[in-house]
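Help needed: design a sequence for this.
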């Protein structure tokens, strides 16, 4: 018997969210089922998180095996899953050191605190400016919303942490004008996720690296959304051939189990000496055991190459639907992080498309009011991709008023 429904939400939850009417109770692969047994194809992955689908057998095994062994210690003692995952992450990336936490916001909080201490130890207290970009999203803690580039997330929470400068994304000339020896860090997403699935240009990324070197500032890549294979490489920085000093990872890292990580060079790591920062749960054995299983699967040539192949199919399908209904501009993004910007006559209606998708058994996302965002599992079956596109086509047909009406009897 069901004794909780969507109506319960309004009675017991803080009203900061407005979830859909659907309450899923079960998932397998790229499908979820709601309380009424209705099935949905998942092109959202819980906002780019469940990148191996729901209840992947190897992740279930890693989690349940660890659950029978050891759940939690705190950082008074280290543990084997955390050490193994850190070993694998440093072996697979530019990084020498890892700090574990529980979310993307916490990973960025650590990175920004590191940046401030870095600046403060290099100067007479004047090297503390953080440069970030309009429409960036870095999390919901007070520091991370302040560094993020969307005023709506800081309004009403003043006073905010100071000396954060926001500049236009992909505008190297402005960055060059504004950066100085008082800048301690430049932070950017290789593809702005929440900001509309907007990839950085090669020139911008290379220029940011050069300017950070010139002014002795840390370059921080927020790869919370682009990381763990979603871009078609383990981390998106590999596409650009530019390495940051600090990189943050979360979302896909746990495949659905909460975990975040800050990866950094030895030089950056030294800033966070004993006692300077911490987390009770960070590096928790359960989270790290799952993270290790995710990394073992994702960081293989088959899975990473499969991302590109699936992305191609998805882009082709979106182009067809986009043209058929005059609904999408050319799609953009990287790998299986795809944005379909709406055409002028559909502007502002991304949410309507998501809702129509729900009616047709498909879960998609928005990235702002004007972009439909798709982030399916990295290993979604091609048949599921095709079926999801069919459902998206039906949703767009309904909105465009061209849906074929079901014959009513005979
Ligand atoms: C989702 C996201 C975050 C915040 O992660 P949480 O786990 O929600 O704290 C930070 N940065 C980027 C780029 C994100 O997409």
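Sure. Designed sequence:
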């Amino acid at each position: 018997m069901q004794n909780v429904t969507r109506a319960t939400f309004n009675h017991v939850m803080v009203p900061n969210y407005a979830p859909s009417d659907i309450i899923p109770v079960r998932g397998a692969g790229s499908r979820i089922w709601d309380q009424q047994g209705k099935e949905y194809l998942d092109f959202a992955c819980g906002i780019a998180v469940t990148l191996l689908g729901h209840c992947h057998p190897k992740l279930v095994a890693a989690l349940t095996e660890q659950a029978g062994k050891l759940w939690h210690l705190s950082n008074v003692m280290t543990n084997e899953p955390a050490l193994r995952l850190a070993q694998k992450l440093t072996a697979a990336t530019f990084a020498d050191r890892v700090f574990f936490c529980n979310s993307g916001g916490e990973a960025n909080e650590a990175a920004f605190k590191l940046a401030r201490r870095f600046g403060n130890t290099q100067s007479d207290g004047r090297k503390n400016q953080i440069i970030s970009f309009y429409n960036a999203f870095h999390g919901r803690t007070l520091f991370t919303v302040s560094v993020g580039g969307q005023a709506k997330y800081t309004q009403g929470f003043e006073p905010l942490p100071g000396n954060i400068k926001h500049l236009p994304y992909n505008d190297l000339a402005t960055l060059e004008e504004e950066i100085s020896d008082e800048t301690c860090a430049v932070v950017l997403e290789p593809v702005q996720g929440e900001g509309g699935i907007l990839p950085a240009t090669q020139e911008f990324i290379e220029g940011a690296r050069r300017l950070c070197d010139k002014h002795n500032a840390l370059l921080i890549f927020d790869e919370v959304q682009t990381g763990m294979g979603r871009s078609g490489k383990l981390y998106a920085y590999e596409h650009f051939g530019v390495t940051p000093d600090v990189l943050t990872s979360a979302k896909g890292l746990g495949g659905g189990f909460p975990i975040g990580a800050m990866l950094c060079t030895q030089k950056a790591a030294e800033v966070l000496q004993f006692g300077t920062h911490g987390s009770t749960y960070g590096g928790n054995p359960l989270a790290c055991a799952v993270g290790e299983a995710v990394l073992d699967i994702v960081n293989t040539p088959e899975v990473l190459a499969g991302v590109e192949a699936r992305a191609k199919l998805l882009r082709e399908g979106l182009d067809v639907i986009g043209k058929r209904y005059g609904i999408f501009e050319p799609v953009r993004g990287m790998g299986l992080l795809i944005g379909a910007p709406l055409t002028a006559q559909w502007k502002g209606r991304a949410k309507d498309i998501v809702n129509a998708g729900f009616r047709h058994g498909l879960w998609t996302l928005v990235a702002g009011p004007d972009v439909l965002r798709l982030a399916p599992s990295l290993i979604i079956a091609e048949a599921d991709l095709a079926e999801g596109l069919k459902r998206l086509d039906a949703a767009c047909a309904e909105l465009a008023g061209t849906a074929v009406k079901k014959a009513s009897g005979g």
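The first strand starts at residue 24 and ends at 28.
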